[in-house]
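pinned: reference chain
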Amino acid sequence: MTGAQTRRFLLDASQKVFRAKKRCCAASSDPAPGLDGRMYGGALVMVHPHYTGRIVARFSDNRGLGRYAALTLRGKNGTLMTFISVYLTPALSGENGQAAAQQRYIDNHPGTLSTHDPYELAVRDIAELVSDRHRAGSTVVLGGDLQTDVADGSKARSQLIQKYWGRKNLILPSLDMESQPWAHGPQATRPPTYYEGDAAT
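pinned: its structure tokens
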């Protein structure tokens, strides 16, 4: 969405979802446009108008690729909580999608990058944000479209998440405590997961 579209969406959400007169607050991150001029992907975090006064920091994708957006709120006794919305790189599908736009960014980047794979770069960049928020004393809640099943340890993308976000205390509601969710190989269909990693909690 463009900035104007985001503002209209937030006003609509405030009135219809939150039933509030004030506009809810948000952090958004627009993706780089495709060669056709359209924008694919993007991320958004909304906060109920009642809690906007508690927002102390906002973050958007530092590369302008629309991969994540985040808000930090201060609660009672100074407790900090950061909410990160993530839309990781989907599979490459032509020259106009998000993956192609991110690859063009990498190919044209004048400096040194830690990797030339768009998905891995996104995972690493988000890991840096999470670490930064932890150093600031904030708990971090991360959710979104990771474009992979984090419970399937045989997938290359899941292994990247394990490596850079940690693999501690993966909790899958439909699996018993004796199961090994990071074992290689596909697993049974399950409901959404709660993932607490070494870097992301």
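why pinned: Residues 26-147 form one domain. Confidence is low (pLDDT under 50) at residues 169-179, 181-201.
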